[in-house]
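Most newcomers find our protein records easier to grasp once they have seen one. To make this concrete, we reproduce a full record directly below:

…
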Amino acid sequence: MKENNDFSVAFLVDNTPKEAFDAINNVRGWWSEEIEGDTDQPSAEFKYHYQDLHRCTIKITEFVPGKKVVWHVVDNYFDFVQDKAEWIGTDVVFEIAKRDGQTEVHFTHVGLVPAYACYDLCSNAWGTYITHSLRDLMTTGKGQPNPIEKIVGQARQMRDQDYTTSFTVDQSPDDVFAAVNNPGGWWSEEIEGRTDKLGAEFEFHAKDLHHSTQRVMALVPGKKVVWHVLDSQINFVKDKTEWKGTDIVFDITGKGGKTELCFTHVGLARAFECYGDCSDAWGFLIKHSLFDLITKGKGEPNRKGQAAETQPSVAQ
């Protein structure tokens, strides 16, 4: 990988530079059979799509026979990350050169950097398509175009997976329900508004890092609590409204004389930029602070006037 962190990969083949160039431009032979448009003409545009997960429009901006091909991503849509336009404005570069009697193909997706939510998935996909499918097309005459099922599955998981965690305690369902409805005792002492009345709204804030407004949507004694996030301002990510429209759900179930609490933040998916920080924060708040409030009578909420930076995670 280059120092600028653009995704890059290379391989060597016995083919001539012309044969490598021709294979690259046979995009249907190694990427997808559903490519629409010309892929082997200077200034041509073509479209790639796969179901509802990914589609993009690409323009060929450099076309030097036997040496170089550059695609510019004119438009892009991802269904599995928060910023659905992440590829727009990036360049996909194929450089071809003779190396010690062989031909080297050097691939770089300029602008596809680790800061992108799609980086891991996209770099894994490009790695497979370039070093396996494209290389096989050159060396055996047959690539493996169309979606990589493993990657597709990971994309769907990124899109659909909500953050969830759970624990079991000796206390009764009513005790757990009462503790959940006391977020000042386990989340933050600076909660403002009622949290124990159906339809009530309350606010959470942590200095200038995070502010959100929740409405109590379900309140079933000893069984269930649901908060709907009406508004959210998360100042440490690009999309500051990532939580808006999500639901924070507490399911309480009595099991064999014990009580299980299952916490789910519905809509907090791995595609979110804040997922790592927010899931870490919820993990501490639920499995430690709320657990301690239920089992010991004292949680570890954010204290009044305490800097958010001193807490286990920024979501506090």
